[in-house]
Design brief:
Length: about 40
């Protein structure tokens, strides 16, 4: 998982958003953006 590898502080939030909204394109983009933002 991108967020875990990058060690971002909000890994739990990224996982929850990805689980519940990841099936939508918007939810997936939000989760990816949260995982890729700087520490």
């Amino acid at each position: 998982m991108v967020a875990a590898n990058r060690k971002v502080p909000n890994v739990g939030s990224v996982i929850v958003i990805n689980l519940f909204l990841g099936w939508t394109f918007v939810g997936w983009v939000v989760a990816l953006a949260m995982a890729m933002r700087s520490r």
